[in-house]
């Protein structure tokens, strides 16, 4: 039987092409993901090992630097004591924090969240083992810095140049003393690293004389574990020591976990692609079996058992799966290599390392490829076994029996109803539970719709038939009828597209709705013209606030500054603001009390908080500030909850004195004359042209909050593209099959006068009808899902209202039509080129 | 449709092949399917082309009907010379001037009987002449089954639809390729009867390829082909006379 399977595969090479392609793409996706993750994790592991290579023991302080009553870190004395330990070769104390470097145009180099500053910690030999200088030397004076090679290159800085650097305070100018390379992770990820002289860094980031971290190198032959034991008793309670090896492992594990998440997401999408592929494979084998009816009947007649027939079909599928997996795996490896260089091109630096090919991706590729193909061919295989031996004797070309769809439809309707009920129940329940219901419901609804799709195809396509006949005449009429001729096949083909579009539409509806809600929220709540914040999301220095208050033309300035005080021993989330100005820059909707009372030292409380705590205007609240001083505050006003306001507002004058370092997240500014580039420049100049501080206008603010959603959507679209490509292959496959099966008909049409152009048009229109049908089903289901999930998050997003992205939906439908046209290119050409005489000749 | 009297029409030529040759392959493997065949098909005449397998009878029909290309010679349908036509023009010619009846019926399963009958006009974008179509349908006796799809019709009924389709567009000439090949004798006789009626009563020109002497007996003229050449011709044939001739060729074939 195996020989028969083998021969069959070779006999139907061309017709199996699309199947092979579909399996191949899915397998390539899977193996590419696995190989990429393996390679990356290996490279990261190596890098972690390398960056901790010289480190025998590392000590980290967990002290709170803001607590004035405690030591903020590890003192120089501790360092001295550690260096006296037996076997210790060198001790390097480090502090680090944010440091943004300006390029010659004043713009920040690198992305905000990975701009680091640290200290140059030379050992006795004047060198710091963590950094290798390619030019110049480490900073040893107050006004010197060193820069990592990449960032120096981006700013076109050379040793001796003056470089503007901003930490949390104002911008300062330094002289570049050297350029270095390092194994530091942040730098490797595309960030920047500025090295200051130790004293400067300590003053900036901690307190003079203290370090956050100490790395210890061992003398040759000394044992790391022994040093660790000797170091531990020397440390304050708030510090912890670990060996370099332990740290490297820990870092590697963290990276592994991050990669693991990425891997899972990618594999999820690969799974969707493969699921879509199942429909294509199943269609192909159904057709092959139908075409081979006579042959199979003959084999049954000469004594092959049903089981043998099924097995022969499955063996054929396994063979196809095997070949496709092999090619897919090779393609996947190429994909992994390409992905890595692609990331490098997008400035996402990855550590170098060899390509890692472990056994897992190989096994996974072949298991996935072969199993999926065999699974998809299982039903057609069973159907093949049911062909009676007598079919061999029939001279008439066996027509595929269209079994009643009644059973199928009843099951489909029940499953769809169950799924829809789950989704609706989930939407009304809301929250995480609701989303779980929706997830389950979506699964059933999708399966149900796939089962029902053949039934849906007739009425839905009948609806559009007039549109086909009108402009396209007889070609359109025939195309419309051909599309519903084999509902199962049309259904399976459309399903593949529907699945992809369900996900795409669901995501779009959700994304656009949430985006619109956020947009509305920002427009409703922000009255300020500008929002000022740190590029790294950190705290702004108080000097920035002072500078803005003094700037020309500024009519209102208020910070959103974290205010730390406790009520009944518990910290409450509160913001310190500038009374009088806060109402001008943010919407404060007072429901009771008097907003003006903020200026008189009273506090304002958000409605929900007031309700929970039983506070009313006039009530007094005993509080304890961060420095343990106590006071009694009076509630002056209650306002409506808002995303942009903390639950408690207080005059910043009240808290400022109690906090060593105010934590200013954002400063909102309103200027005379509103937004303009001149006004923006005034603010930027007032802030000292600081590269680390961003000044956002309203549009920027909207983008800041809503932009992430668009990026996420685009990434999702990209990942779902694979599933859509396979769906397109499915359309190509179905059409090629149909053209092949209808050769005689097409020949007759050509004979009685249908020209080639219209034969092509007929095939093309059939493709468009099937594609658009799939798209419409997918868009319908996707919109439903998007609505349902939206309902569960509606409570969390004030101003939530469903927005149907008609523009995008329109684009999807048009794209589906184009997909049809594209998919029909090859089959339509084949149909038009068909040899008329062969086609009309009877066998 | 010309309105000339029948006597005149019988002398007009609907299609003509002159020195028609069709050669496959080259050199050693060369096969001559048609060897300088010259033949005329007169209007309002039913011609049967007969001959053993491989005699070139189907090839002759395909070439004259504009379905196949030929190597040399000329073919005219009415006043149109086929040799110089491109595929597009040939398609248009077939659409407007020629009707076809195939052995395997070749109906579109998705269309109803009526839609199948009017298909050539649909393709041409012409409005069918309702009166004419009705009379054709009446003639082939399909009035009650116009809404049925081919799968709901018997073989004989399907072929009657095919005959109606060929007649409905009033082509200059109808070609039939073994039109009764897939039918039982009673249904075959019916279909042949319709074809003869269309010639006698409507003045239609019909050319059919057949290997069945009974079918050939319905024709006005039988043309015998062997080895790509016309070897004999018979007017007013009967099944017996046709069979007789065939036996003669067979004997000759065996002795030579």
UniProtKB/TrEMBL annotation, chain B:
ABC transporter domain location: 15-252
Lineage, opening ranks: Bacteria, Bacillati, Actinomycetota, Actinomycetes, Kitasatosporales
Any one annotated GO CC term: membrane protein complex
Keyword Signal: no
Keywords of this entry: ATP-binding, Nucleotide-binding, Transport
SUPFAM superfamilies noted in UniProt: P-loop containing nucleoside triphosphate hydrolases
Record-linked InterPro entries: AAA+_ATPase (IPR003593), ABC_transporter-like_ATP-bd (IPR003439), ABC_transporter-like_CS (IPR017871), ABC_transpr_LolD-like (IPR015854), MacB-like_ATP-bd (IPR017911), P-loop_NTPase (IPR027417)
PANTHER family assigned to the protein according to its UniProt record, in alphabetical order: ABC TRANSPORTER RELATED (PTHR24220:SF685), IMPORT ATP-BINDING PROTEIN (PTHR24220)
CDD domains found in the cross-reference section: ABC_MJ0796_LolCDE_FtsE (cd03255)
Database matches in Gene3D superfamilies: P-loop containing nucleotide triphosphate hydrolases (3.40.50.300)
Name of this protein: ABC transporter ATP-binding protein
